[in-house]
Amino acid sequence: LDARPDTTTHRFPAAFRWGTATAAYQIEGAAAEDGRTPSIWDTFSRTPGKVRNGDTGDIAADHYHRVSEDIALMRRLGVTDYRFSIAWPRVQPTGRGPAVQKGLDFYRRLVDELLEAGIRPVATLYHWDLPQELEDAGGWPQRETAHRFGEYASIMAGALGDRVATWTTLNEPWCAAFLGYGNGVHAPGRTSALASLRAAHHFNLAHGLATGALRGALSPGSEVSLTLNLHAVRPHSDSAADLDAARRIDAVGNRVFLDPVFNGSLPEDLVRDTAAVTDWSFVLDGDLETASAPIDSLGINYYSPTVVAAGSGPAEASPWAGAEQHVRFLPAPGPRTAMDWPVDANGLHELLMRLRDDLPGVPLVITENGAAYDDYADPSGEVKDPERVAYLHAHLAAVHRAIEEGADVRGYFLWSLLDNFEWAYGYSKRFGIVHVDFATQRRTFKDSARWYAEVIARGGLAE
Ligand code: PNW
């Protein structure tokens, strides 16, 4: 039996937000119901060879039909907040024109049931499911898409602005721009360095336009935010060449979004590094001002650190526009998750220290952290996931240490509530703290769910 003394070793601030996170395409299913049309992820997952085992989000965790059941799971966990995303093609199927009432109704019911359960709704407007029609018109490399996104944001602000606690404009624009248009591992699967940089800029513009649209419709106490998967970049050595490799990845991985959003500027070194790809003439007067509309917090998704050295990677189909010939990625040492991602909680602490120093006055929220592991079904019927518990414990301890050292971290959202459609990996990777049997849609708490409920109840960690 567990012999831990019942003493809290890491107590979090009383107002700390404890949540779980999901995304529409990864859990909802009901891909063709109530007027929803295909997004780029429907098209991509139906293209042979793009997603492992040919998996799609057609059914996923069937959350569209199981909202009440899933909110009951969250009540059992005791979370204070729930981070979900809105599927743009459910609300505005062609990405233009009037909203579909049934799409709005679905999210209104979700939000109202959350509020009834005492759980704060944290809504992300874009978690990668662009209406296919907008991709057919050019997608994110096309400026018009940013304006369409601003319009969609005002529809959502009008529909739910009185009851959503936190709006997140975009989830991980780095993945959407550079994996979607750079190396093509994510939808829409295009491979062009220029397209990836254009997309990144239009995400910044879209974020600013949406922030403006939301600002006017917020209820008192509501907030606007942006979630980035910032790369915790470590140079392999202190050599000038390795430090320069780290600078390049920081520019095209982090500052490509941080500088426009928090400074209203483009990183000068990024413009230099990418001179062979573009002169950035797609950045028009006023864009950076729009992108830098003040926001209330920054969301950070963290899974593992990135170690780089001078060298070169594959020139073709890279998500690192302009850095391919100068940077080599090294495997970080130590244990790995089922994604083969290194487990290293120090990377999260390093990132939070950097943001404490670089973005003073900006409240931080961990909007995703978690790990994929294969579950072990105990003969007792319990789902054992000791590695996930160890991963989560170590990362929450790192957040706690960062708070003690002055980082203004307001909350933590565990990725993910449910096992779900893990993008290019399909259903082969399980991130949930609740096991989903995809044949029956039966949900079962894993040990990590019980552990997280205890952490939330205690307001911190115990040994
Ligand atoms: C994030 N990478 O995706 C997403 O926000 C989630 O939807 C996803 O399920 C989760 O992390 C786990 O993967 C990422 O290759 C996908 O650097 C890929 C990368 C990073 C984040």
Walk me through the structure.
The chain is an alpha/beta fold and 463 residues long. The protein contains 15 helices and 17 strands. The strands form five sheets. Strands 2-3-4-5-6-8-11-14 form an eight-stranded parallel barrel, surrounded by four helices. A three-stranded mixed beta sheet has the order 7-9-10, covered by helices on one side. Strands 1-17 form a two-stranded antiparallel sheet. The model has no long low-confidence stretch (mean pLDDT 97). Bound molecules: 4-nitrophenyl beta-D-glucopyranoside. 4-nitrophenyl beta-D-glucopyranoside is lined by residues 23, 26, 171-172, 175, 229, 301, 368, 415, 422, 431.
Each distinct ligand: 4-nitrophenyl beta-D-glucopyranoside
Summarize model confidence as the mean pLDDT: 97
The largest sheet is: 8 strands, parallel, barrel
**Which ranges are low-confidence, i.e. pLDDT below 50, for 5 or more consecutive residues?**
none
Number of helices: 15
Shape, per Cα inertia axes: globular
Query: Can you give the helix content as a percent range?
Result: 25-40%
Strand order of the largest sheet: 2-3-4-5-6-8-11-14
Number of strands: 17
Rg calculated over all Cα atoms: 21 Å
- N→C terminal distance: 14 Å
Strand percent estimate: 15-25%
